[in-house]
Amino acid sequence: MRLLFWSTAFISIAVAALLALWAILGDAAGAELASAVAGTVAGLAGLVASVYALQRDGRSAAGTVRAGGSGAVAAGGSVLGNAIGADSRVTGAMRAPRRGSGPVRPVSAEGERAVAAGGDVAGNALGEGGEVAG
Predict the structure, then answer these.
(1) Exposed site from 58, 60, 103, 130, fewest CB < 10 Å?
(2) Are 119 and 104 in contact, with CB atoms under 8 Å apart?
(3) Whole-structure pTM value
């Protein structure tokens, strides 16, 4: 996907430079018409890319994250610094989580007290009476 974006940027710059040269060295009226057509095509391509990006983000955010069973926990991203269970606690200051690529899907936790995460799991007090110092 990154290659597509860089290719589009390079082609756009090249087309703009060619249109400027055409207007300066050649027929200004022809360059004006060509730039209007190029602008329309670029605008429509931007519209298509925007709709695609919005639709894609909507699907990834609505991915599968399930927790089944008594006390089960499922998280689509990282699970950092949580107290899960009776009398569990996290004390002290927790380090800031690493910046990741965002939530990962699908995630599933099946069974009693099952825990599943789509990212990092660190600094958590899991179970009854668990304690973690930050």
Answers:
(1) 58
(2) yes
(3) 0.40
